[in-house]
Amino acid sequence: MTSNKTKIFIDGQHGTTGLKIHERLKDRPDIELLELPAAERKDLARRVEIARAADIAVLCLPDAAAKELVAALGDAEVCVIDASTAHRVADGWTYGFPELGKDHRRKLLASRRISNPGCYPTGAIAILHPLVEAGIVRADSTPAVFGVSGYTGGGKELIEVHEKTDVEPFGVYGLELAHKHVPEMKKYSGLAHAPLFVPSVGHYAQGMLVMVPITRDITAKQVTAADVHRVLTDHYAGETFVPVRPFADRKWLERDRFLRADRLIDTNSMELAVYGNDAEGNVLAVASLDNLGKGASGAAVQVINLKTGVDETTGLAVAS
């Protein structure tokens, strides 16, 4: 980097994700945050100027605005971390999930264009990628992915809705089955076809569960829940932020039955678990995370830490 302090510009720092990233970085002695006056926050020329002056520019913007700024930056040396969906599957961009594979951190260190993962895809890919790679889930199959998120995952508009009275307690959405997160789930899971993705929102602020049934119609061979658990455990061995719970673990369940969606809020942890009924040949893999943590702002800060050479846990909470 260009100085003792890493210069970071958060374009869109007053949005939901931008605020969380700013909060995690603002008091760090190794970071200098570059900011624009309120009157200049929509001035493309000024945004380009300050982004070029930064070591890392983090884009917390709508897709169109992110594409506009990236196009204006051209081949500038600044490292861009785009938290929008605009470049998640674009050529020349590296997916910002360090735990994706054994050599993925090396790819991130070499890249100046990094796409921050989406919240639901983080959980889905964390489960599916190792299973496809290991030959348990067929690459030509169509897995189902079910998820529930707190309403902060929908940004300011959905937050405003849920802060009013008489709002639905739970709602399934994306029923056109063409959610914007599907392309990255497909690409980084290693699938030939788009998964069937069914998201939902609960009337609570933060926290997420992503559930993937591992059924006979998507497996390459007969597998048990223990087989699935072993693959995930081996893949994430030694990873601080992606621990795999003990097989069929019940200790994290409320009253020995209920898995809360909000148990990892304000952390960068994503816990994986596997349950099964081998008599019926059914397996369920679950990812638990904070949609604003490992599913958004925490993921960006983790990559910033990696790029700047500090410990990856710097400024990030780990679930106890």
Description:
The protein is of the alpha/beta class and 320 residues long. It folds into two domains: 6-117 and 295-308, NAD(P)-binding Rossmann-like Domain (Rossmann fold, 3-Layer(aba) Sandwich), CATH 3.40.50.720; 119-291, 2-Layer Sandwich (Dihydrodipicolinate Reductase, domain 2). Helices cover 30% and strands 20% of the residues. The protein has helices spanning 16-25, 44-53, 63-73, 104-110, 119-133, 155-162, 182-189, 225-235, 293-308, and strands at 6-11, 31-34, 56-59, 79-82, 94-95, 113-115, 144-150, 170-172, 196-202, 208-214, 270-277, 282-289. The strands form two sheets. Strands 2-1-3-4-6-5 form a six-stranded parallel sheet, with helices on both faces. Strand 3, helix 3 and strand 4 form a beta-alpha-beta unit. Helix 1 packs across helix 9 (293-308) and helix 5 runs parallel beside helix 7 (182-189). The radius of gyration is 19 Å and the shape is globular. The two termini are 33 Å apart.
Name a few traits of the molecule.
12 strands, 2 domains, globular, 20% strand, 6-stranded parallel beta sheet, Dihydrodipicolinate Reductase, domain 2, 6-stranded mixed beta sheet, 320 residues, 30% helix, alpha/beta, Rossmann fold
- Cα separation of the termini: 33 Å
Assembly state of the chains shown? single chain
> How many domains, in number, for the residues?
2
Architecture (CATH level 2) name of the largest domain: 2-Layer Sandwich
Report strand %: 15-25%
CATH superfamily of the largest domain: Dihydrodipicolinate Reductase, domain 2
Strands in their spatial order, largest beta sheet: 2-1-3-4-6-5
Shape: globular
Could you name the ranges where pLDDT drops below 50 across 5 or more consecutive residues? none
In DSSP terms (H or I, runs of 4 or more residues), the helix count works out at 9
Say how many strands there are.
12
Rounded to an integer in angstroms, the radius of gyration calculated over CA atoms is 19 Å
- The class by helix and strand makeup works out as alpha/beta
Global mean pLDDT: 96
Helix content: 25-40%
Q: At the first level of CATH, what is the class of the largest domain?
A: Alpha Beta
CATH topology of the largest domain, by name, is: Dihydrodipicolinate Reductase, domain 2
Q: Provide the succession of SSEs.
A: EHEHEHEEHEHEHEHEEHEEH
Quick one: biggest sheet?
6 strands, parallel
